[in-house]
Queue: 4 jobs
Job 1
Amino acid sequence: MTPTSTTRDTGTLGKLMRLLDLVSTAEEPLRFSDILQRTGEPRGTVHRQLGHLLEEGLLEQGRDLCYRPGLRLLMLASNAWSRNEFRAIAAPYLQELHAATGETVHLGVLSGNGVIYLDKVESRQSVRMHSQIGRASPVHCTGIGKAALSALPPETAREIIATLDLKRFTDTTITDQDLLRQEIATIRREGHAFDREEHEAGIRCVAAPIAGADQVSAGGVSVTAPAFRAGEAELAVWAPLVRDAAARISGELAARLGPRRSGLSEAH
Amino acid sequence: MTPTSTTRDTGTLGKLMRLLDLVSTAEEPLRFSDILQRTGEPRGTVHRQLGHLLEEGLLEQGRDLCYRPGLRLLMLASNAWSRNEFRAIAAPYLQELHAATGETVHLGVLSGNGVIYLDKVESRQSVRMHSQIGRASPVHCTGIGKAALSALPPETAREIIATLDLKRFTDTTITDQDLLRQEIATIRREGHAFDREEHEAGIRCVAAPIAGADQVSAGGVSVTAPAFRAGEAELAVWAPLVRDAAARISGELAARLGPRRSGLSEAH
DNA sequence: TGCTCCTGTTCCATTATTCGGAACTCGATT
DNA sequence: AATCGAGTTCCGAATAATGGAACAGGAGCA
């Protein structure tokens, strides 16, 4: 009812997307009855909705009658990714940053109440290589998340922080709104954010903000490394490199897109 | 009108997906008027449909009023990819194959009238690294495409071939249905497929088929290399390695999924 | 300034689609 | 054979999509 409440009014599409989310985020493949139970909707309705999603290739159904996310999603995302101007502009700078530091480099943007990774450059092919792209991570305990918040107007940042679930991941995770706001203020002053094992034990990073052309979108670049390779000395050395890369990406973004354009996504 | 014609009857969803496809495959960002013109639908309708897609995050609109694919697509695809059983089962074998050959290894499945790449392992980080995942490639001139066809019942393969657009990419591309059927027969006999610069000049590959548990899905694994590193001798050495990897993936697929299950996507 | 054109947005009666309860089919189990 | 549970189909009632027309508002021009 309040204008700020997230009452999605996307009609039929909204219902179908809720269903698609349900299936695609389920830990285990779901059968018809599972879905029926979890939605609470009537049989006929759910059946027809799933049928439509199947026919469009957004879902698939194997011999076991379980529903799984469909390949159409991969195709759509492939287009989304390769045509993303922000990612394309940033790519060479990520490579450069990787070459300078030798560590893993990430590019991410703020979206809704999470950070979405748009790109990644790493030295060694890891098994989780592609899985990071498109993955949503928490804002309050990632370098990119905190850096991105610092690029927004304080008002906007405050509003977003108020909606976050400041879940604890490690014993250094910031779980208090006030402390987080202070941290963001510090980051805004210094131009870079640290993540000292706040999300994952043994993993540290330095990140710097990238401002969107509008005032409602933001992202960041980061250099991540295992704690034993990322002491305070290393973080201090990488910080200006990361800041520089972020600044140049911001610059090119502004130049390429002009004052009336934006390549970053709208913040929710 | 005819029952066999591919008249999608997915109601509202179908219309929205057509719109989403239009935007996401467009070479350049589209403005409202461009979309209006290309669809021919009335203004009010298109406007509301786009509004719904925006609100769901499937599309985004920047300051320039241009519509672009949204980050939601990346998130959905990320889930689809990481939960894909077929990909997960194949992953270690791809690594193994890469270790044995030192060249780029692909995993793909047949979907509709194209090959969708599900995974990739390569030695050197290339700029186009992620862009391949989810990308659709032609069937008739790729190793995986031809191998996958050979894993289907001849009848099914014939039907699919009949629907393909045998576009010429290089001077070795097979552009004749009969020749392609013969090629598939040979591949079925030998257990592996070659791509001798049929898709891209200077690129050759060996692929082997992976059969889905049902009789309507199929995929393949391939080793790809630049022509100067992939002479007939090398291809001959790699062929049994690729066949072996494919066979073991097929085996585990059958074992893990059982006789009544399938992790591969339904063929169109 | 005042005018026009082009673009994007909003409104609302009509129309087509979705909804959802109930009946139906089919296998597996007892 | 009967029962149960899972998946599928059907059709009147309820709801959402449609699309024509009116509304805003900015850029270019006289």
Job 2
Amino acid sequence: MHVCEDGPSRSGGGDPPSPRRSTQAERRERTRNALLESAARGLSRYGYSNLVLEQVARQAGYTRGALYHQFKDKQDLALAALQWVLDTWDQEVGRQVEQESDPVAALLTLARAHTVFCRRDIARVAIALRLEFSGQDHPIAHEVEKGYQALTGTCVDFVEAGREAGSIPDGPPVRDVALAYIGAIEGTSIALAGQVPQDAALVAAAAAGALGLDPRAMYPSYAAAPKETHS
Amino acid sequence: MHVCEDGPSRSGGGDPPSPRRSTQAERRERTRNALLESAARGLSRYGYSNLVLEQVARQAGYTRGALYHQFKDKQDLALAALQWVLDTWDQEVGRQVEQESDPVAALLTLARAHTVFCRRDIARVAIALRLEFSGQDHPIAHEVEKGYQALTGTCVDFVEAGREAGSIPDGPPVRDVALAYIGAIEGTSIALAGQVPQDAALVAAAAAGALGLDPRAMYPSYAAAPKETHS
DNA sequence: GTCCTCACATACATGCATGTACGTATCTTA
DNA sequence: TAAGATACGTACATGCATGTATGTGAGGAC
């Protein structure tokens, strides 16, 4: 967002059709974002069918009129909210993962960053929509599955790279391991929502377990434990 | 159920007011079970709000009339279906866990048995209801939370016992570990639904990770994975 | 300043699922 | 067999949320 404030007054010299600053568009964007965030919270809390647009709009400080002015219908709003959450996820989680070179480090960073991401109310949007629409021929189902498939693809690549590098042991098919890894992260992140200090370490431990890695090597909390060398 | 079949024909001699076999109650029970199973599948697939009673009854071979004759309203049906699932879980999973003496063995048995339990359509009932009602003051929410708290209590006890026995390493608070363990099992079980051969081992691995145990010690798949005609 | 457009609010219409009242057939008791 | 109860089907009423049409006031172009 390369905006500064309002009150443009760019009354300088030669200015072609340069809108000094589109106050209209800015206003529109603001309310749109407020509606999207409210919708995302509502979806995460109540799911799609239980989501009442009156409450969504009210919680954002508007009425249903504003909502129907920006979005075609309820489904359109849900899709936009989902996209908004996925974008936020990419910014906050994907960005960190990209900076890791080692595949195992990337997977564990993803687990921890996702846990932090889940500390908000927005976190259960994806799983809620998936539970409600999975297996149906519905645009929302398709969008959610697309997101999951992208994530799965990334994880499959990391697991494969880790196995080739020898840092992830052989075992079940790579795809199944990746699915288990994702499921473990999601499940533990939701189960531990709010347990702020310990959540990241435990999610990483569960993720490590799905990958076949010793979880005690992951975080300092377990470092003090007696070295239980396996047979 | 101590029933045999229908067609009694107990036309022997002296028969006092012995109802040959309560055909009415039996009939009622049959349709009740059919409706409960249908409702459980529906809840697992669509959630509560998306659950249409017309479909529930139809899928069981009845109409909404039969449903409203047996259950007070939709909420009553959902509560009964939830109870039905929990009872089934106790029979199929809890029974096996009780027979384990070692706490770690019990926890891993629970993980594997739960995975097998989840291979049906009934499995997502609990998490679906929890997602839809958590944080609300609703009877369904209370019932679901009661079930989760019972499970959590059991797992907390096992983790404590395991730590005292030295088979589970020290680390985060016991309760957090138990929550992570349960979340890992749920998440992986759902994510791997259908991957019949490998699911149990991977769920056990994720659960082991949450507990701080080396997952490779858990299942033979990782012990000897030499072949693997990976493409 | 006039006109137009856009952002948003308000009021109305529609649909759909729930819940209820009532009708019918089967079983039970005498 | 007759009378009552019970299991279930059918038809109607209600509520609630969505979607649409219409109104109002604040920008922006001239």
Job 3
Amino acid sequence: MSSTEKSPTRGRKSRTNANRPTVADVARAAEVSLMTVSRVVNHGTNVSEETRKKVEAAIAELGYVPNQAARNLAGGREVRIALLYSNPSSAYLSEFLMGSLGEASVNAAQIIVEYCEEGVRPADLVGKLAAHRANAVLLPPPLCDDERLLKRLQKAGLPMAQIATGRPSRHAYAVTIDDAGATEDLVRLLIEQGHSRIGYISGNPNQTVSELRQAGYEKALADADIAPRPDLIVSGDFSYRSGLQAAERLLASTEPPTAIVASNDDMAAAALAVAHRHGLDVPGDLSVCGFDDTAMATTIWPELTTIRQPISEMARQATAMLIADVRESPVAGVDARHVRLDCELVRRASHGPPRDMTVSPRA
Amino acid sequence: MSSTEKSPTRGRKSRTNANRPTVADVARAAEVSLMTVSRVVNHGTNVSEETRKKVEAAIAELGYVPNQAARNLAGGREVRIALLYSNPSSAYLSEFLMGSLGEASVNAAQIIVEYCEEGVRPADLVGKLAAHRANAVLLPPPLCDDERLLKRLQKAGLPMAQIATGRPSRHAYAVTIDDAGATEDLVRLLIEQGHSRIGYISGNPNQTVSELRQAGYEKALADADIAPRPDLIVSGDFSYRSGLQAAERLLASTEPPTAIVASNDDMAAAALAVAHRHGLDVPGDLSVCGFDDTAMATTIWPELTTIRQPISEMARQATAMLIADVRESPVAGVDARHVRLDCELVRRASHGPPRDMTVSPRA
DNA sequence: CTGAAAGCGCTTACAG
DNA sequence: CTGAAAGCGCTTACAG
């Protein structure tokens, strides 16, 4: 079960890096100095339009890609991004990591993954960040909404990025989606299918998106002239367990809902479990919808109708923004500090018209 | 919602890298040349014992850590590890990524995350790997057990590492746990609590650990002189959905089990859902146990008694092995190609003595 | 607006 | 067993 033999075959490269083109190659092709190539690749300042064109053409032709290791060495601009997280929903986290770490890897930036207790003292945290020599901070939810933390980080002079916040800070980068609009679309779909008693399970109030999603739900009802029923809105905290309790309350109502919209997939999965426990058929007796489209949405049965949030892409863009900030090199085509990405309504098997409706009244 | 202002404050480093010690500092302190320091840090060959001691002391005193970017540049030994995955259980994947990417980041190695269809043609895959200039391959389950793939990769001369395989290849690195022993422990716990009708949901036969875990189950029964009942062993494929069907069959038995051991957490969660649908109390009427201790184990209710598999650490070690192989620098303290890590039985709330037992017969 | 020089921290041949 | 030199690919002052 153990030996010390080496790999059978191995293809070693020569000392020079394969034959990837270098600045020198580009400089030769464009008939300029190394310096000028470097300027075009970086700030792009103090270069005549004509020269820039020549250099860019050479770069494109040779397929030149800067060697990040060399840049780091020469420039001393090491990027060390702390990824702070708490309450890791693993499905969320894995998508997040794929995006963030992928981008970091390509740019030879380091990501330092740091677990951050709910009640961490910001001072302690800043100390830790210093120990890791972090020079930027990535804040996924719910930390993206922690005002105290944001303030403290800002005071420490660290560039930071909020992902999926409902309240972007003026002092931070932010990548968001339209949480209200997406929820509104989802609820409207249900209404169009004939539902009018639509229950809602809200999210953790410590995340600003919770408010936005609920506002979307309320707006869709209002637009359809459906009077809101307070007993159909119950609070959850994004956890499966809270979804269990919330769904029980909803179904215990004297006039129970024909559809439940949960503000994330975990709680929707819980609602599904409760429905089954009550002997209800989904979607025949009850429609159930979620939000996020994490892996859980297709793990359970029936598969969840939900909103696809591009978590990985959000993380990727936030990471790119921080890298650009630390390196002081603008990201091509992006000069906004706050970016909003599109999301999509994914129709799967957990929704349908209510039983007492044969035909949808409008569709 | 968009502006171009820059971060308010920012702490830039001077051109030289903070004041991290360099080889030159170590050389000065140890009164040797740079060359000698480099030799000690790397192969450690051709250095007198006395000199080595001096250098090592200097390294320890200064807290010297090699600058990977510089090493890569000078040595041209870029490590590019392809992480091939299929059927991503996101809970598994996120833990895996944390371990693997963390290790890669520290060592300035690149991880290229590549989704790999079940029926991918190995030739196509090898082509893709070449395009990415990958020089090592990480194989989490189920790909770690794909013989064709392993053969093809070996022929391509790429060092590879299997994670959580039941059948380590002589041509690969491997990091495993004792799947059979762990399952045996779990089943023995149930037997000690008084269970004798213990159902089992097996895993996907395309993973070699499925066999091992089932063997552990059978061994525990045999050791306790409990005759195996074929109707209590049903096959699953590690998916939630397969767990749903398997649990239904188990509970439909004329003499249903008082406990169900599922060979992973997803299927255990499904068994729990089915139990609830049947109006059974867990663990009062039925004990349910899983395997892996992914996030799902504590997401659901009651929390799952399961085996904690150190996925992140397994991924970390496998990654370290590949990096060492590509750099031809042995990992300190590890010269085995196959490593087996410990795992742990985590007792939570989903198991207990069967209802007809007041006191455990042996505990 | 453009470039020649020095240097980032390390390793690889090459000598002794 | 040990070391002086050259160079990896890039950027930063410094001159023009």
Job 4
Amino acid sequence: MQIGEVARRTGLSADTLRFYEKIGLIAPPARDQAGRRVYDAPVLGWIRFLEQLNATGMKQADRVQYAALRRQGPATSAARRQMLERHRRHIQAQLEQLTETLALMDRKIADYESTEQAMGQTGDSDE
Amino acid sequence: MQIGEVARRTGLSADTLRFYEKIGLIAPPARDQAGRRVYDAPVLGWIRFLEQLNATGMKQADRVQYAALRRQGPATSAARRQMLERHRRHIQAQLEQLTETLALMDRKIADYESTEQAMGQTGDSDE
DNA sequence: GCTTGAGCTGGAGTGCACTCCAACACCTAT
DNA sequence: ATAGGTGTTGGAGTGCACTCCAGCTCAAGC
């Protein structure tokens, strides 16, 4: 696979893939005779995993650190586990925040609905 | 209340409060004889609400738009409700993403734990 | 009456995470 | 053999959301 196909399959741009390589998120792939990047299939799974971390708010610097540990092999297993445990706690905190705000949205939406029903009755109190 | 106390009570910096006023998130408060901002208590609730939207990923531009609608009064009720409904859907999508990734973290953490148990047995497969 | 502390303005600077570009090289199909 | 598509590099630029700063005014306490 060359960079365009990886881009197409992952939804990232070729620029982003090169950028990820530059900062160490993705290991430098092999090159063909013309100097173009040639990726192997497993990188797709890795990129998907990185996207999961990204989508759930892990910072770039931490993803870079995790990627570096991974490249260093099995000896870093405990360190990586700790990073994932930390991220797990971060995810749970977000779940709580989101659940709370979801309930708030429901209350406010219901408020707006009744306000629209009885237009001008209660007035438009707050927020 | 002047700006320092609002900062203390909300956790935002005075700079951020002035910035929020500049972009229209917070209505310009009254001023005392010395030209200093004097806030009334209800602004605290509004700021807390803004922080909820912020913490759950509503973009600044959208918060500004919501704030603008709110200042325009009851006539904009329907538009605001629609914004909250949209944000509600956004929150639910995030909940799904987080729940999925939480499960993934659990699987990977368990993997790492068994790898640490049987060091060198299975090898350190992926991600 | 002077220091201390809080606040004021306008504008520059920061950190993050990309995103775009110019100028060039190479492969494939017509 | 030439046009079009895909790739290369290094470096500059973007958008978001603040954050910091210089140089100033003001008010209150000792």
